[in-house]
Amino acid sequence: MIVNFVCRKSKVRSNGTAPIELSVIINGRRKYVALDRKINPKSFIAKKQMVKGDESLNEYLNAVRNKCYSIETEMIKYHMLFNTDTFTHAFKYGLKSNAISVNGLFDEFLKKQEAKYDGRLITGAVVSKYKCTIRYCREAMDGDKMLADLSTSDVEAIYMYMLGKMANNSAICYMRKLKTMLIYAIQEGYINTNPVTFKFHKDKVETEPLTLEEIRAIRAKEFPTERLNNIRDMFILQCYTGLAFKDMSSLTAKDIKVDKDGKEWIMKARTKTGVTAFIPVLPVVKEILERHHYLLPTPSNQKYNAYLKEIQEVCGIQKTLHSHLARHTCGTILLNAGLDMVSVSRILGHSSSKITESVYAKLLPTTIMERVEAVSDKLE
């Protein structure tokens, strides 16, 4: 750290005086702090770092210099983040034992979440969400600062950055994770109030599932490349099992269990929730698994969804194909086929049948027509 004093002529006021400023350079970055002393710039000797003919003021400057080095020593001693922002904060407001930077909070909170994961209190998916949240926040901030200096406008800037990277609903999920971390900071006494003062409003998104006719059209289609045929198989398997992409990509023969009646089941704990899904292995599913020797050639989720766009175009499907649509389709079709809510919930691996009901309990047009026709005589 390099500490100096300056008295800039550009800041001379109408009475002919200018403030003495503390100049601090840490890791090549400079920051100025205005002191509560004003002098005639001509009386300041920059080379000697002193004010001509004013011993009391020179003693004050020496005291300020000593204070700076004392703060530096304490911050290094307690392994605190040491840069121009954190130093000037400590200089202005004092060095608190519980002071922490934004990145310091992120690191501390993430360690606690990883410990919870090791103790099987939360799933790996939760830890992953926090890691993504922290990554986006750090990208948006482009640097660190003291947590106490984090303002509502800083949080809004993070939200706006995320909106430039993803859809509003996805950004809100990450912002809620940030809010949780800031609530933790309040509980630990790092800050008194949460800078997230505004409410988030999710966009209402209606997902229209595929019909059985559309599923059959995709299933019957032979593609010119092995790549698309493999993607077709994985998508069809999702439609008939409701497996999420991560669970499908990690599926192995060990996840297939046989009951006392010789029926095969996929019994697999969901990556997202840890809840075990109980999925009957239908003939079409068994056919796909055997074709790929119970090890599906899954690419990344991003590539998988990109390849599904190709299948969508080739098959003339008007709906946008993506990984979650297959899971959504599975739940909706099972419910429309007459399967009870609890059974569908167990197949999808939901922690509660209320989740199944709120997300998947939609009637397909064909089901509506069948039910109307069944009571049509009562309507005449």
Radius of gyration: 31 Å
Question: In DSSP terms, counting alpha (H) and pi (I) runs of 4 or more, how many helices?
Answer: 16
Mean pLDDT: 87
Strand order of the largest sheet: 1-2-3
Task: Give an overview of the whole structure.
By secondary structure, the chain is mostly helical. The protein folds into 3 domains: 2-93, no CATH class; 102-187, DNA polymerase, domain 1 (Orthogonal Bundle); 212-374, hpI Integrase, Chain A. The protein has helices at residues 55-77, 84-93, 102-118, 124-141, 152-163, 168-187, 212-220, 226-241, 245-249, 283-291, 301-315, 323-336, 341-348, 353-360, 365-374, 376-379; strands at residues 2-6, 18-26, 29-39, 44-45, 50-51, 256-258, 264-269, 276-280. The strands form 3 sheets. It has a 3-stranded antiparallel β-sheet, covered by helices on one side. Strand 7 and strand 8 form a beta hairpin. Helix 4 crosses helix 6 (168-187) and helix 8 packs parallel to helix 12. The radius of gyration is 31 Å and the shape is elongated. The chain starts with a strand and ends with a helix. The mean pLDDT is 87.
Write the topology of this structure.
Blueprint: E1 2-6, E2 18-26, E3 29-39, E4 44-45, E5 50-51, H1 55-77, H2 84-93, H3 102-118, H4 124-141, H5 152-163, H6 168-187, H7 212-220, H8 226-241, H9 245-249, E6 256-258, E7 264-269, E8 276-280, H10 283-291, H11 301-315, H12 323-336, H13 341-348, H14 353-360, H15 365-374, H16 376-379
Antiparallel strand pairs: 1-2, 2-3, 4-5, 6-7, 7-8
Helix pairs in contact: 3-4, 4-5, 4-6, 5-6, 8-11, 8-12, 12-13, 13-14
